[in-house]
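Recap for those who missed Tuesday's class. We walked through two folding examples back to back. For each one, the amino acid string is listed first and its predicted structure tokens come directly after. Nothing is annotated here on purpose, so try labeling regions yourself before you check the end of the notes.
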Amino acid sequence: MKDKKPRTRLVHGGTKRSQWGEVSEAIFLTQGFVYDTAEQAEQRFIKSEPDEYIYARYGNPTVAMFEERIAMLEGAEDAFATASGMAAVNGALMSMLKAGDHLVSARALFGSCLYIVEDILPRFGVEVTLVDGADLDQWRAAVRPDTKAVFFESMSNPTLELVDIQAVSEIAHAQGALVVV
């Protein structure tokens, strides 16, 4: 697909055809997959060999096609789909932060994002500093050597605050922190 034009990649990228050879990707509604033997199931579930679908919560062909298209669209090496934006925010922050870590976040966030940052993360020992996202001096002052990540919305909901993604990323990366947008 890399040799195709962007529009073609967006339409056809990630397509995985079933044994039926459908024109459009099929939608797989299944939760589980069939194994020829108990040993085959054990190989997939316990040893992750081969890397195939085992249960829909971990992935299925429909979600895999979507993830591959998103990765191509974003120019990323991979993508991970979640059931909701809040699942994505919670999963991203909880997977990269632990007790003793520091997060700097814009204060202007969707209410549920603010709840994760202000209430949930501190319960797990993550220190959070909130800043005015449009004020680069506040970002510079808040980011410190133990800052593991910064978090903001590309346009905050509902206040429509804009954050300079490149500038905040440079501030964060100078300290080795990850950027979650």
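Example two. Treat it independently of the first, because the proteins are unrelated.
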Amino acid sequence: MHTLIVTAHPHPDALTHTVARHIAEGITSTAAGATVELADLSAEGFDPRFNQDDMQGHQRLAPFPADVLAEQARLDRATALVLVFPVYWWSMPALMKGWIDRVFSNGWAYDDSSGQGVLKKLGHLSIHLVSLGGADERTWQKRGYTDAMKTQIETGIFDYCGAPVLSSTLLLETDSGDVQAHLQTAFALGEYMATASMDANASHIS
């Protein structure tokens, strides 16, 4: 089992990165032989801008750019993908969205060229979402943000590619709440992800 944990936050000491590390610890402490790779898109300098070369690849007129191919290879090595991100304007940061825009490309994540509907190509990749928000639960529910993010991210992105979302967790009041409680939750999430992803992978193989 190999898990890729992707983060998008400009500050290396942010709670987002600490949560990601605790998730990784939960995974490796639970699943014997499990490996985890932490991908910090900000520190790595990933360019989120969908450009002409990306469009050429999308239209199958040229190979995809080297940085996109490298990210796809990193995902090909994984059995599970965990996205850990702060909520910006009720969605993921532009850096992470741009990573998805460029990397989850036509021909790799899905294929719409057959004329018979969309071929979903990521059924082997288990998805876990962990978002950090400053608002409280009352505000979140009052405005319908949970359903909005579920529609946009779980359905709009991962269901389109056939990648099953096994968990989606909101850590709220991250600016004023109990940080240690969030970190305990993160570790427990890692433990759960290890078990869930192993079960999903075994089911996919069988």
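Answers for example two:
Strands lie at 2-7, 35-40, 80-86, 110-111, 119-120, 126-132, 165-171.
Helices lie at 15-30, 41-44, 52-58, 66-76, 94-103, 137-143, 145-161, 179-205.
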